[in-house]
Amino acid sequence: MTDTTSPRTGAPDDRVLIFDTTLRDGEQSPGATMTHAEKLEIAEMLDEMGVDIIEAGFPIASEGDFEAVKAIAEQSKDATICGLARANLKDIDRCWEAVKHARSPRIHTFIGTSPLHRAIPNLTQDEMADRIHETVTHARNLCDNVQWSPMDATRTEWEYLKRVVEIAIKAGATTINIPDTVGYTAPVESADLIRRLIAEVEGGEDVVFATHCHNDLGMATANSLAAVAGGARQIECTINGLGERAGNTALEEVVMALKVRHDIMPWSTRVDSTKIMNISRRVATVSGFPVQFNKAIVGKNAFAHESGIHQDGMLKNAETFEIMRPSDVGLKETNLVMGKHSGRAALRSKLKELGFELADNQLNDVFVRFKALADRKKEVYDDDLEALMRDQSAGEGNEHLQVKFLRVICGTEAPQSADLTLTIDGVDHQTTAQGDGPVDATFNAVKALFPHEARLQLYQVHAVTEGTDAQATVSVRMEENGRVVTGQSADTDTVVASAKAYVTALNRLIVRRRTAGENADVKAVSYKDVG
Ligand code: KIV
Ligand code: ZN
């Protein structure tokens, strides 16, 4: 690391600031909605891992977004907390009201500057330029730290882009973010654009240029790193690359690329890479977007060497096929950890090692579930314990509906049937339903007891470990009137995990209906009562 400080970033010259937008651009991805508590938890993890700026949300979007950004600002420690605002005074005021509670607040305001985006508010180039001047000046009067973005910058005419960036800098923006909103650019162009902006825009030398890439052509990470080579000193990214369509630049990829190839990319970040795996898993759970197996850095197979040739090489020298160690990203060897004779203290200490600190009452709950798992499954691995913990938190808030009893009849002879008892607001209801397979029959039984119009958008099963007695993690995503909710659950019985994941999503739907002020009286439907 160099020992000179950049006047632009206020950090060492070779430092690239990491701006995480998992809670804004990531959460905006249809179906990735997180609860208030989950957002706070992710923000705390991001702060602890050394992310420089956390974009916590879009405060004007809803009361919930506002409260989340405000609470994240209040709990923040080292990170700067940023909120997003469109180019109007009302948005900016609301954003400031939320972020001002942070030790280090930032307002991020944006407007679409490409011809296609200018056509939407129907503004001429001059009218838009005036709007940018007015809104950035307003933001800067409220806050010393203002970021401005010309949305769809990579499809904006060069002369106009240069003009508006200059206006934003003159109006007081301290960071200029260059978004590749539709994932259209390529590495050479990405580097060149930043280089030209720094060189040709008046005041370009005095601000931080940021890069914000989407992954539509699979080049987001490459484009972000190229932008840094061109002079950008802030990368905008999300955990697991979460984001709309093909997602955003993945934080773990840029952080590890800068670390592993420091020889040719001599820049560093403040991120503690050993915390990557934990936050990746947590974001996958709370967003309901599982990580693909072959995803770089955080995929289940990223460090697995299964082919004979690779295994042989690995046994002789790990560096043959490994450019980084699993421990660099916080991945521990999958080892046999516990069995049914393990006690409470051993469980507490193992969970602590895995990053879960539990209060006594929480430990008691988890211990009961651990014993049940150990009874069914001979060998309990780290991954099993993590799935158990994720299942525990995914089920928290399941106040209205709970699976009490489930038995399915399945096999080669159709129809398959499910006998289900669902506890609905404290009262047990029972039914038997048929379906095309055990999962379909189970979902039909849930729907018979709790009728709803929500559409199942996604149903996914992942095995937590190897073996036929492995736990299955099931994720479901459902949509009702534009509202998208997710649910996840793990169990050694795939059908039980499916039922619980489905019911978790329905519980979230009830909460969302209530938040929207709709009549969500779950008792208002007719059930067949037990007995
Ligand atoms: O992709 C984009 O253009 C954005 C802006 C709001 C910065 O997310
Ligand atoms: Zn974006």
UniProtKB/TrEMBL annotation:
Chemical reaction(s) catalysed: 3-methyl-2-oxobutanoate + acetyl-CoA + H2O = (2S)-2-isopropylmalate + CoA + H(+)
Stretches for region Regulatory domain: 402-531
Domain Pyruvate carboxyltransferase as annotated: residue spans: 16-277
Protein's UniProt name: 2-isopropylmalate synthase
One of the record's GO molecular function terms: 2-isopropylmalate synthase activity
Function, as annotated: Catalyzes the condensation of the acetyl group of acetyl-CoA with 3-methyl-2-oxobutanoate (2-ketoisovalerate) to form 3-carboxy-3-hydroxy-4-methylpentanoate (2-isopropylmalate).
GO biological process: L-leucine biosynthetic process
Pathway, per record: Amino-acid biosynthesis; L-leucine biosynthesis; L-leucine from 3-methyl-2-oxobutanoate: step 1/4
Gene3D superfamilies in UniProt: 1.10.238.260, 3.30.160.270, Aldolase class I
